């Protein structure tokens, strides 16, 4: 249905409503969550998520990937049997609720087979959700005009695409070790006309020190914990801390550097390396509240 047909249908519907009920109907349209107006960027990100759902597995984990269960930190208790990898960019809570209502998904597992004794499954996401992405670009980062933004472990590319839509960064670079993910990101960027500012580097981040040193903003979103052997985590974070040394560089992380480094006994390096930027979320209300404590911004000293 095109716009003019939709207008005509709406007018016809309004004529069928009892005059006494019409004001309430109009107010419902204005106030209902069903008719929340999305900006152009949100619409495009929704379309990208729909495209990606058609080409990646439900858990957004590719056969060519190797995952590791953390042995320290807050996720060390993740049991592979009852932990599901659900990509938050592809599947928001409303989408999951829809699947549950249609018996296509369950949030719980049975403790005793065939009983009603159940417990919630553990959900792990390796991508930023759309609410988190909105927070990052609309409330956390400064104006990125002429700047270079680098996302380490860009996977499906949501940070890159949002950076294109919500910022004026001159260069938006994703570093991704998995070749299949790189191909997927490039496909999406080409489809939506984003290749003029987005570039994808298929390489191990350990080989990208020169590139990282050029970045004005570095995004580290759940970057190493599930994709690096426990014995190599110290090597990865040592590399990052020694590479991101240009004074004034911004590092945005989820979770905090304190959480990531304390789990491997390296948090002592933080005072001499970075200073946390206090983020003011006082004006933020609603469903994004639960994500606020996970987003941290630092400036290199």
From TrEMBL:
Any GO MF annotation of the entry: methyltransferase activity
Coiled coil: none
InterPro entries to which the protein is assigned, alphabetical: Arsenite_MeTrfase-like, SAM-dependent_MTases_sf
Name this protein carries in UniProt: DnaJ homolog subfamily C member 4-like
Organism: Phallusia mammillata
């Amino acid at each position: 249905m095109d716009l003019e047909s939709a207008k005509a249908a709406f007018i016809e519907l309004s004529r069928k409503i009892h005059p006494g009920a019409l004001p309430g109907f109009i107010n419902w349209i204005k106030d209902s969550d069903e008719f929340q107006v999305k900006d152009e960027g949100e619409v495009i990100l929704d379309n990208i998520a729909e495209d990606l759902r058609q080409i990646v597995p439900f858990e957004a984990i590719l056969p060519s990937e190797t995952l590791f269960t953390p042995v320290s930190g807050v996720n060390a208790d993740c049991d592979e049997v009852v932990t599901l990898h659900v990509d938050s960019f592809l599947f928001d809570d409303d989408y999951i609720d829809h699947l549950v209502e249609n018996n296509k998904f369950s949030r719980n597992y049975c403790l005793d087979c065939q009983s009603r004794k159940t417990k919630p499954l553990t959900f792990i996401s390796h991508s930023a959700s759309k609410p988190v992405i909105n927070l990052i670009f609309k409330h956390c980062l400064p104006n990125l005009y002429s700047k270079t933004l680098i996302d380490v472990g860009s996977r499906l590319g949501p940070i890159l695409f949002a950076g294109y839509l919500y910022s004026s960064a001159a260069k938006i670079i994703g570093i991704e070790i998995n070749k299949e993910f790189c191909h997927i990101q490039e496909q999406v960027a080409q489809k939506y006309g984003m290749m003029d500012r987005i570039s994808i580097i298929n390489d191990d981040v350990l080989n990208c020190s020169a590139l990282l040193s050029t970045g004005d903003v570095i995004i580290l979103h759940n970057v190493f914990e599930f994709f690096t052997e426990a014995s190599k985590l110290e090597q990865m974070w040592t590399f990052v801390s020694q590479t991101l040394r240009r004074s004034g560089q911004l590092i945005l992380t989820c979770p905090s550097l304190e959480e990531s480094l304390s789990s491997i006994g390296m948090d002592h390096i933080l005072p001499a390396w970075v200073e946390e930027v206090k983020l003011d979320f006082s004006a933020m209300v609603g469903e994004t509240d639960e994500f606020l404590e996970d987003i941290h911004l630092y400036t290199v000293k």
